[in-house]
Structures are given as C-alpha cells and as structure tokens.
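Try this one yourself first.
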C-alpha cells in the first residue's frame, strides 16, 4: 500500500519552495526576511516572558517559517481549481473580503489550514482575490478582458493530473508530492512577457492597475510573500536603511501592549520590465505589481471585539481619509483606540477576544467557573493568534502599491454568495473557527482537571 505524504508536509515543502523562488525574483525579499529575523531576535531577547509564553503555546516553532502570500485570478474556473490545488496542502477557504468598497475591483478569501495542530506545523496562507469584471464600466473593455482570460491556462497539465490523483486516491506519494510542488509553483511564477499588446495593456491599466495585473499575464504571479514580525514599528523603522521605500502608514490598529488582529506594512512595488507582443521599442515597457510586506499578528477578536474595532477605526478614517498618511493620523488612531482595553485580562473578561485555556496541574473543581479556575491558578489563558486578514488593511496595502491616486468608489456590494458559487464551496466563518478553538480548549482543560482529581 502506498504511503501518502501528510498535507501539512506538502504545505511545508510548497511554502519553502515559494520562498526560495520569490527570493530569486524579488531580491529585496531576502533583505526583508533578514530584517524581520533581526527584529524578532531583539524582541525575544528583551522580553523573556513573551518568549516563554510563545514557547508554551507552540508559537516559537512556527515564527521563522510563517508566511502569507497573495495572488489574484480572473475567472471562476481559476478560483475553483485553486481551491482544489490548495486542498492537497490541507488549506481551506476562510473568510470573505469585499474590497470593492475600497475601490479595488476584487473580492477575496484566504486559503489556510484550520486545525490547531496544522497551524502550529506551518500556518502558510494565500490571500486569493477574484477579479470582478462586472465593475469595469466600459462594456467593450470588459468583454475584451473576458475573452483574454478565457484563452489562458494558468495550471500545468501535470499539476492538474496530480490534483486529480490526490482527490481520487486520498493522497500523494513522496515522489508525487515533490512533483506536485514543482508543478504548482509554475502557476505562481513571474512571467515578464505580457499576453496582450501594449495598447490593450494601457487601456486595462487606465481602467484600474489591478485589472491590467490580472488580465495581461500568463498567470497569477505571487505579488508578495509576507514574514511575521513581533514588532512591526521597529521593522518599519529599519526598512529605509536596507533600501526599502516603506509605505507611510502601518495598516490596522495602533501599537498596543497587547496586539490585536493584524498590522501590516510594506515597501513600494517594484517597477519590472515587461515585453509586449510586437517589435521595437513599443514592445518594451514596465509593470508595477509586486512588493514586500511585513505583518504583526495579535489576538483574535470575538464578534463583539470586531464590532468595537470597526467602530473605532471608522471614526479615525472619517476624520483622516481612507487610511492615508496625514498630519496626526497615528495620534488620532491611538487616541480613538484608548476605548479598546489593552490588557488580556480585560479583553477576556469583557468578551472581546479569544483565548485558549490550558490546565496547569493545580488541583481544582473542574466544574468551577472559568474566572475562579484562573484565579486559583488551575487554568492559564493564552491568546489565540489571529490567522486571517482585515479587508480595510488589505485594501490599504493594495492601494499604496498600485498608486495612491486610485480612490474610485465602487458600489458596496457584499457578493459573498456569488463568490462562493465561483469558488465551488462555502468559505469558513473565521470567528466561528476561533470560537470552536476556545470551546475545545476549555473542554480539554476541564477534562484534565477531572482526571487529576480522579487520580
């Protein structure tokens, strides 16, 4: 009987191969990884309690390998096939993000592992966006874009065959897993040859830079690969010295003693040489799409916590514009978020964030209230890391790297049902996943307490 390679292992191999490829394609990515490693080492050395807490929670092992990537596809068939491809690696669609409300003509999900053990092994994620061609106002241009996308094939025949083999057999052998990684990687590789002439590219580019990025190339080249830092402000400050043109604003919540959700920053997109079909100088041009990004992850918030976060962020954005740098923006952001408790005890007690409960070995009544067990030292509450994304943050990163003048406002339309139809599956509700992790941890901790008493 053939031994199958675990999806977690295939995901790990793919993430390493992707990182190696991107380092070759975007040399500054290597500098970014080195900067993040330096900052993380400094933070862990200066904060031994944080290092101990992360070690207890199994977070240290994943820190160095943790990455998220982002791609953009153009058709429902491409999206459906990506879902099948990521399933080989144990990654499922989590969350729905409508970026059209921020002037970006896509809606998105994130493919990632969902089980706690899989996340600890390698929490690789790919933020995946589907172009919304219906948002192109010019009907003739829209039809031309549809025709261009209908002709392309972004997956190799061998990759498709291996996906089908995995689905039919229930897994891949070691040699097939290696072949799958190599073939799948081709979908994400940069191709400097456009599939359209320069004139068509310019027309699509004028409609929206992202439309040109999706439609005019052989495939959905990975447009960034993001390492995780423990201090994004220190990383941002260190970027210029390494030749990186950092964006002006760190997206997401302000700096806090107890980080929440997600903060992101990036360096500006590269201007890369592109060859268009044709001859002479008219066949040569440039394209701006790929960039470097850093993220800092905090505790996952409950629905109540997300509502408060959204309310406070909306107040700041109403005052300071759509996330752009402005005089006093950081100060206004910090002032607004003074209304959000900045201790894990307060966030847990007020039901604003999710926590994993762990039995410490101290004897106690397993049926006692959680607060009593925590006070007695019988339970420990560990923050559950937010594994997902923020629609406003994602849009801010997109905009900063596509050109700050892109501030079109498409009609807000939560087209989740249409997205799921194109995906061929429902997306997970990320908040429900965190609730399940918290509930499961509490049940396990209470069982451990009962077992200790029985012994």
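Now uncover the answer:
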């Amino acid at each position: 009987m053939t031994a199958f390679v675990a999806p977690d292992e295939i995901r790990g191999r793919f993430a390493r191969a992707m990182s190696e490829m991107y380092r070759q394609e975007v040399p500054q990515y290597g500098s970014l990884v080195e900067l993040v490693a330096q900052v993380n080492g400094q933070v862990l050395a200066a904060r031994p309690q944080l290092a101990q807490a992360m070690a207890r929670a199994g977070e240290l092992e994943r820190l160095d390998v943790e990455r998220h990537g982002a791609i953009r596809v153009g058709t429902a068939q491409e999206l459906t096939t990506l879902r099948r491809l990521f399933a080989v690696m144990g990654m499922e669609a989590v969350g729905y993000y409508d970026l059209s409300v921020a002037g970006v003509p896509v809606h998105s999900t994130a493919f990632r592992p969902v089980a706690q053990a899989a996340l600890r092994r390698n929490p690789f994620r790919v933020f995946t966006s589907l172009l919304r061609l219906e948002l192109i106002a010019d009907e003739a241009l829209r039809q031309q874009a549809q025709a261009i996308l209908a002709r392309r094939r972004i997956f190799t025949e061998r990759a498709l065959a291996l996906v089908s083999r995995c689905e039919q057999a229930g897994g891949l052998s070691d040699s097939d897993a290696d072949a799958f990684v190599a073939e799948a990687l081709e979908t994400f590789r940069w191709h400097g040859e456009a599939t359209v002439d320069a004139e068509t590219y310019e027309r699509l580019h004028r409609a929206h830079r992202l439309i040109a990025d999706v439609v005019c190339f052989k495939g959905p080249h990975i447009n960034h690969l993001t390492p995780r830092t423990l201090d994004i402000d220190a990383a941002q400050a260190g970027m210029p010295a390494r030749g990186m043109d950092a964006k002006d604003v760190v997206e997401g919540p302000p700096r806090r003693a107890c980080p929440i959700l997600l903060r992101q920053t990036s360096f500006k997109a590269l201007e890369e040489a592109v060859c268009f079909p044709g001859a002479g100088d008219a066949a040569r041009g440039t394209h701006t799409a790929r960039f470097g990004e850093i993220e800092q992850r905090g505790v996952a918030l409950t629905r109540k916590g997300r509502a408060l976060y959204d309310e406070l962020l909306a107040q700041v954005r109403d005052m300071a514009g759509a996330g752009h740098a402005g005089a006093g923006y950081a100060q206004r952001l910090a002032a607004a978020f003074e209304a959000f408790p900045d201790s894990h005890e307060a966030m847990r007690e007020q039901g604003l964030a999710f926590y994993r409960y762990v039995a410490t070995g101290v004897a106690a009544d397993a049926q006692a209230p959680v607060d009593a067990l925590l006070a007695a030292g019988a339970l420990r509450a560990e923050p559950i890391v937010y594994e997902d994304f923020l629609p406003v943050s994602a849009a801010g990163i997109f905009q900063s790297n596509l050109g700050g003048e892109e501030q079109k406002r498409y009609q807000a339309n939560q087209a989740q049902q249409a997205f799921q139809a194109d995906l061929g599956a429902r997306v997970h509700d990320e908040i429900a996943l965190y609730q399940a992790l918290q509930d499961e941890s509490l049940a396990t901790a209470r069982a451990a307490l009962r077992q200790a008493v029985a012994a």
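Discussion: The longest helix spans residues 430-454. DSSP finds 19 helices and eleven strands in the chain.
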